[in-house]
Amino acid sequence: MTTAIAVTIAGSDSGGGAGIQADLKTFSALGVYGASVIAALTAQNTRGVTGIHDVPPDFITAQMDAVFSDLDVGAVKIGMLSNAAVIGAVAAGLDKHKVAKVVLDPVMVATSGDRLLDPAAIESLKRELFPRVSVITPNLPEAAALLDTRIAAGEKEMQVQAERLLVLGANAVLIKGGHAGGVEAVDILVDASGMKRFSAKWVDTPNTHGTGCTLSSAIAAGLARGKSLEESIRAAKHYVTAALKAGDRIKVGHGHGPVHHFHAWW
What we know:
The protein contains 8 helices and 9 strands. The protein starts with a strand and ends in a 21-residue tail after the last helix. A hairpin with a 7-residue loop joins strand 7 (172-176) and strand 8 (184-191). A 6-stranded mixed β-sheet has the order 3-2-1-4-5-6. It is α/β, with parallel strands linked by helices.
């Protein structure tokens, strides 16, 4: 039996709740072997980000070459890429290694509100990566920033914004509605086949650090295991909802605590 392998290309979170650390925890929790390409280092905890150190693009290339030349990678999750040069290196690496299944989480701002992406790099993100990935997974503020418009006020507006992102070159768009609050947390997927709606009961908790990273890496884990995109999203939504509900079982930090990635075990 072959081992399902997924790779995360993202920033490191020294506090352990988001980024590379959240991705690897998610892969492990979902029965997938995780490898990593670190694109940035952050000095970060549950209260915020106090520093960012970008990894040189040539070293990102070296990491990608090392991983993809040896491991049979089933899927890739891309998270924090802080500038245009880093985005270009990742795009070139995806082409070089002919990566087929890629989930792009267009991380722009941390849960704490700290900016993680150079505003000037937004156009590079859209131009270089949108056409090369299977699905992009922006939350409501990220979708609005990508389109330079207001935050969607409801499901219809979410669908319209997802359709506009498709026109910009994305193959599929999953807009996450968790920021909206309310009774349900609704995510809208739009691709060439139409629109699909994914809902779960909204979880009222302060432990939301790393939620977006966790969802996108859970989708990548599903793709690495051979599931369809729709199946992967549905399973990922279920996993993240359970991790949010269990977040109060772990006491970490004094700000936005992390979700409980290993809620099924401890």
